[in-house]
Write a structure and sequence with these properties.
alpha/beta; 6-stranded parallel beta sheet; 18 helices
């Protein structure tokens, strides 16, 4: 075979590359040659063209040496060879020393910069919020914390996760946007390592939020993170102070006593000195996480809360919009305020004592919650009032109670008997049995839930188990089929049901290990339901569960439809509770079956249809029914965004005409399975 002739340039380049592979000595040699190749000719040119150049060649060469030596910092002395050699040696030693010193300083600075980029330095903040873990909820949590701190000058949120610091900062910047006066600090490291947790200073934080990582091991990691917080507290305070919930020498004031969601006991949090809020998906990890969180720590069970809200929204269309408003810091939300002027007065008087806020309950001096208490309940001097208001500084007492129009208040309201219901469940996932269990507590005997899902062995067994657990109150029937198939959806006659619930499948690896997004099939099902609505001209009462809030904008449904985005819901809840620990008990009761819940009830229950009345009149009418009115939904605007007819905490003196299909938002006591209270 003939040898290929390479061009001279390529051969030279190849030879040069090979010399560089020999290490630092080759590189230094090339640098010396390159310097000499430039410095010596230029020095010679300067000497030969100078007006005062020496006349003799040795003199010119000596001047060239002097210029070159001065340029290269090699002394450049002229004299006996020994003296020139010694000057060169001294210059080389000085050059090596300076170069080494510069190299060490540069390496140290680069190492420090690299450490900062890796996010391994310690956060020196006090009263900040710490977020441990990374999931889709982190964007909701951080965004809500930024909104909550909008009126504060100095606020900080520190995020610790086992991810690259720069990647976290970029993702938060894109998803959250401008943060105003709130500083976002990201640190990299394992949240389950007690030696790593001090990087975000949880022992000086105001609140610590522990997020479940996406994946099957997320709940176990939450438990380990909570245990690591305890260990980190022992390292920070010592074993004698780790369980007190306050730094050594400090005290936990009266505001530190709380009502725990898990067991209702009062206490402080996890020995870190911060209020700890965590979330798990699986109920099997709830007890372990609660024990690890310690007294007063709050552990939210995401699947259970999602199931409860799906059921409540299915029975009360529009309720998801109410919760979205109450959980979002951008609107009106729950606060607890002290009001010494109301001490000794009744809760019924407090309902009309505010015109820009709505009272819904009391937090007693011992931390016990009384949501929607009887009107005659006397407010104690150390009690806090639970209000719905714009911000913590907008709950201001009115100079005088607003006027009430007695003439339009409805006084005779017949009790409603619950009739058997028909519910259509399109899809099945791990939350479906929880939905069945919650729904059976509300429905009257003889109610039916038809489940349309693929009849796999696992699904069929789960439906049979749910039917057995539901008992006589609810019959659960599996109708095999694909909820994303047009023939299946057309055959079930969705319009004949009282409510329709759409669930996406659990994410499982598909071909090639790719996990199919549950929302993809949910969107197909909603397209088919939308086609049914268009064909029949009737709007279906659909409640949809989604996992990604970004897909909500893609959903082909009517404006103002009910959506439960589980990840966003839990993120909103965690942010609210982290800012006010008293709200843990409030949301726990509102999401529980029985007791007090948020309801949408016809306005004709309170004021005459067609009458013009202020919201204060509605509040007084609701009080006589043992309820707290906190807003209304205008039926005429229900199909138009961005409010969709929803008004939470309206001004009590504003009068409007109440149409027959308008609804009032109330906090009321719900009886399970029987007649509703008047």
């Amino acid at each position: 075979m003939a040898r290929r002739r390479w061009r001279w340039g390529k051969r030279a380049g190849y030879w040069f590359d090979n010399t560089l592979t020999r290490g630092a000595y080759a590189l230094i040699g090339w640098l010396v040659l390159a310097c000499l190749a430039v410095v010596v000719p230029v020095s010679a040119l300067m000497v030969w063209t100078a007006r005062d150049a020496p006349a003799t060649l040795p003199g010119k060469l000596a001047r060239v040496w002097h210029h070159a030596g001065d340029t290269l910092r090699l002394g450049g002395l002229v004299g006996p060879p020994a003296q020139v050699l010694l000057s060169v040696i001294l210059a080389l030693v000085a050059l090596i020393y300076v170069s080494a010193l510069v190299g060490l300083i540069t390496a140290g600075v680069n190492e420090r910069m690299a450490a900062l980029r890796r996010g391994r330095s310690t956060v020196l903040e006090d009263g900040h919020v710490v977020v441990l873990g990374w999931s889709e909820q982190v964007f909701t949590v951080v965004a809500e914390l930024v909104a909550a701190n909008a009126n504060q000058r100095r606020a900080a949120v520190a995020v610790l996760a086992d991810r690259d610091k720069t990647a976290m900062e970029d993702a938060l910047h894109i998803k959250v946007g401008p943060t105003g006066g709130t500083r976002l600090i990201c640190r990299s490291g394992s949240t389950t390592d007690p030696a790593v947790l001090p990087r975000v200073s949880p022992h000086t934080a105001g609140a610590v939020l522990v997020l479940p990582r996406d994946g099957p091991s997320g709940d176990a990691e939450v438990v380990k993170t909570l245990l690591a917080l305890r260990a980190a507290a022992r390292n920070a305070y010592g074993p004698d102070d780790a369980g007190t919930g306050a730094p050594p020498g400090g005290e936990d004031g009266g505001d530190g006593e709380v009502v725990g969601v898990a067991d209702g006991s009062a206490g402080t949090a996890n020995g870190t000195g911060a209020w700890v809020v965590a979330a798990v998906r699986d109920a099997r990890y709830r007890l372990a996480a609660s024990l690890a969180a310690g007294d007063g720590g709050v552990v939210l069970e995401t699947d259970d809360i999602t199931a409860r809200l799906i059921v409540q929204s299915a029975r009360r269309p529009g309720l998801s919009l109410v919760y979205q408003e109450l959980l979002d810091f951008a609107g009106d939300e729950f606060y607890t305020v002290r009001e010494p002027a109301l001490a000794g007065r009744t809760f019924g008087e407090a309902l009309l004592a505010y015109v820009t806020s709505s009272a819904v309950g009391l937090v007693r001096a011992d931390g016990a919650l009384a949501l929607n208490p009887p009107s005659e309940t006397v407010i104690g001097a150390d009690d806090r009032i639970v209000v719905v208001t714009r911000d913590d500084d907008t709950a201001v007492l009115a100079e005088r109670p607003p006027a009430v129009d007695e003439a339009v208040i409805v006084t005779d309201v017949p009790a409603e008997r619950r009739r058997p219901e028909r519910v259509l469940l399109l899809g099945w996932n791990r939350r479906a049995p929880l939905i069945v269990g919650r729904l059976r507590r509300y429905t009257a005997s003889g109610s039916v839930m038809d489940v349309v899902a693929e009849a796999t062995v696992t699904t069929a067994a789960a439906v049979r188990a749910a039917d057995t657990d539901a008992g006589a109150a609810l019959s659960v029937v599996l109708r095999p089929g694909d909820p994303a198939d047009q023939g299946t959806v057309d055959a079930v006659d969705a319009g004949s049901y009282d409510s329709v619930i759409v669930l996406g499948p659990d994410p499982v690896p598909g071909p090639g290990g790719v996990i199919e997004e549950p929302d993809d099939r949910t969107l197909v099902t909603l397209l088919l339901l939308r086609a049914l609505e268009a064909a029949s001209g009737r709007e279906l009462p659909v409640v949809t569960e989604m996992t990604d809030d970004r897909n909500r904008a893609l959903a082909p449904v009517s404006p103002g439809a009910d959506f439960i985005v589980s990840g966003k819901l839990i993120g909103l809840l965690m942010a609210q509770i982290s800012q006010n620990r008293h709200l843990a008990a409030v949301f726990h009761e509102l999401f529980s079956a029985g007791g007090n819940e948020i309801l949408l009830r016809p306005s004709s229950r309170y004021v005459r249809a067609g009458a013009t009345a202020s919201f204060a009149t509605v509040v007084e009418a609701a009080r006589r029914h043992g309820e707290c009115a906190i807003g209304y939904r205008d039926h005429a605007g229900a199909a138009h965004g961005p409010r969709y007819g929803l008004w939470v905490n309206p001004h009590k003196e504003t009068a409007r005409r109440w149409a027959d299909r308008d609804e009032v938002i109330v906090v009321a006591t719900v009886r399970l399975g029987g007649a509703e209270e008047n």
